[in-house]
Write a structure and sequence with these properties.
Layout lengths: L1 H10 L3 H28 L5 H4 L18 H16 L1 H20 L5 H33 L8 H4 L1
């Protein structure tokens, strides 16, 4: 998914689109990490293999708090970020994000509630990131749109 979002960024036609996606990703990642931390402190959910020792995880994993799923949050963040820029690509990324979440459950390292919370946290982080990026471009657009040799995009056209 990371390679896919990098490809989407690379092939965006306009510099402003690249800037929006990049700023949205940075802000979205920070928001997602903060929400993951808070959610993990507010709610504890032992991993399935901890609750039921008969279950063997398919992926070696620490027996720590499983709530929320970090991997699902990252997948939800990427899918929602792409969806804000390119709807149809984002829907494809959304399918992959759900598959990542399902794989975490199938591997016995998370419960369904863990991955749903992770996907939601990632989507919230992406939405906040996209909105903050749009606001920053409106508020400070002329200063953020600096092109080659320090010229603004407006100077290049």
């Amino acid at each position: 998914m990371v390679v896919g979002v990098a490809a989407v960024w690379l092939f965006l036609e306009h510099r402003e689109g690249k800037l929006r996606l990049g700023l949205g990703a940075v802000v979205g990642l920070v928001v997602t990490l903060v929400l993951l931390f808070i959610a993990g402190k507010v709610h504890s959910d032992p991993r399935p293999f901890v609750q039921n020792p008969a279950l063997k995880p398919l992926i070696a994993h620490a027996a720590d708090n499983g709530f929320p799923s970090d991997h699902s949050a990252a997948a939800g963040l990427i899918a929602a970020l792409v969806m804000w820029r390119k709807l149809w690509y984002g829907l494809g990324f959304g399918v992959v994000a759900v598959l990542v979440a399902a794989a975490r459950v199938a591997a016995h390292v998370h419960h369904v509630q863990d991955v749903i919370a992770g996907l939601a946290i990632g989507a919230i982080g992406a939405s906040v990131g996209a909105l903050v990026a749009a606001w920053l471009l409106i508020r400070f657009g002329s200063r953020l749109r600096v092109g080659r040799l320090g010229r603004s995009v407006a100077d290049e056209s």
